[in-house]
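Following up on my earlier thread - several people asked me to post the actual chain instead of describing it. Fair enough. Here it is, all 356 residues.
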Amino acid sequence: MSRDNRKNQSRGSDKLRNKDQQKKQKNKTKTNRGDALEDILKKPDNLGFKKKKYDKASKYSEKPDYIKKKTSEKVGKKTPHNMDYELSGEELSGIDTRLAKIKKIGKQKKSGTSATKKNEGERLNKYLANAGICSRREADKFISAGLVTINGKVVTELGTKVMPGDVVKFNNEKVNPEKKVYILINKPKDCVTTTDDPEGRRTVMDLIKGACEERVYPVGRLDRNTTGLLLLTNDGELAEKLTHPSYNKKKIYHVFLDKPFHPEHMEELLNGIELEDGMIAVDAISYVGNSKFEIGIEIHSGRNRIVRRMMEHLGYEVVKLDRVYYAGLTKLNLPRGKWRFLTQSEIVRLKTGMYE
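Reply from S.P.:
Thanks for posting it. Predicted structure:
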């Protein structure tokens, strides 16, 4: 064997020995890291680590230096079990927080907040609205007119607060804040939407006689011969939201006509027509079933007799008019002439506007 061949063979042997040594060194390092990890898990320190089986997916390496430092500082000191121990963001880096009991410290509640608000009182217009007397806007008018007194003194300044124990009177009658009541009725024909009729006709109040002790009022109105959904409540603030034109609550009517409705008139209503009190357009319109005498109209306007006036403008006579949808409420399981209390979820939807 030549001298060059022996040198090459010797070099190859050296390379193999170096590789073997490197592998042994790596295995030794892994073993040392594994031992360090086992020490951490087997000997929980004051940071509150649980004894838990090592998860191979964990990103633990060697025991961090700060843990050793904290442990050495705590030697000989007993830490109460319920003592809160805070760690900085720098200290938390590298810790698997799934294995640590770290208590979240929330913001402390300010004491006396509710009591302070209670002592601040309630605005007079809101107080009247919550009592079912009127809406806030109407209450401001009554206050300015001098119709409201607090503890015997006439109050005309808007924004006046009612304090606990104050006696409030409206039109010389004591105002008692009442529990809010919400009643939905399916109004029948020949029934007047009013609290009292001088002609002695049947009113919507007759339909709910004995339903509640609180004084409730109709929200909006339906014509005497118009049937369908009508809400009654003593919540003046909600009543204003549902009736004021700026809020535009969705309503759907089932309209019965004296003659077939022409398709071109549908397009005309969608584009808008001019009435004596301004332009008006429907949001949607379609035939009901296969009959050309019946149409469904979706509208947001709250103008007086708006559906009947639109039909009269186009040359139709309304034979029957039924409101089947009002601000998210329907006639489901509510026969004609019957009533029911609103559910809590329905009240929430009305107050928060969670409806079309």
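The CA atoms of residues 2 and 235 lie 111 Å apart. That should answer part of your original question.
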